[in-house]
Amino acid sequence: MSSPRRQTSAYQRVWSPGRASGVLVFFWTMIFWGTTQAVLSWSGAGQPLELLKLDQRHFSEGEYWRLLSYQFLHAGPVHFFANLLVLWYAGREIEPIVGRVNFLWLCLLANACGGAVSMFAGSGAAVVGFSAAVAAVLAAYATIMPELETGFSFLHIFPLRCRAKYLAATMIVFAAACMVTRTLAEIGPAGILTGSLLGWVWARRLGFGNPFWFQRRKFERTQRELRIQRMNADDFMRMEIDPILEKISRDGIACLSRAERKVLELGREKLCSQVQNGD
What we know:
The chain has about 280 residues and is mainly α.
């Protein structure tokens, strides 16, 4: 008998993350641009950075490069390091599984779609950051390995372990709360939600993730039909018909469901087939 879901033991990774070339490309690119942004801001020469931010007014005026350039800026140190941390921990886990090309396309597509949604669904504030792509990576990570525990520690004093699915859920709740309260619009909460959805769909199209309830129900129905087809008439009578006949004798024929009536009809067909074959 399987244990309840809440008692399921955490999934432990027993392999080492593969060579994360795509992750390293984005990681060091963000390091470079984050350092550049910090230096320009501290020196008071941050005006050129305004040409990279994404906002609807400038984009509608033909400055289409902003849909690509906005991802290299960040709203602050917390935003910058949070994106780096999630990209490193989640990205290096899934890239060896989905492949470098799929990983890179996921990041680029998520950031483009997330930026577009943030620009038109936001409050008019300029959007910056790689958050949409990071959200897609984390959502894909939680879809592929939902029970995998990730460990964090601050100076090895406060160790924290959390399953991937809870990290993704926390991110989605945070982004939704920012949208409702209209806070932190510069990080693109709508883009984070868009990236999360895209990462989940992307992982499922690659064949990962648990089946939906209707998929499980269809599979169980198919397996039951195959099992019934393999039964002979005697086994079918004993395992399927007899319980229904007991129910009829106890509660009457009106209490039968449509599925039970179908089983009776199938039993009649099996008996007729057996008689014909015997003749």
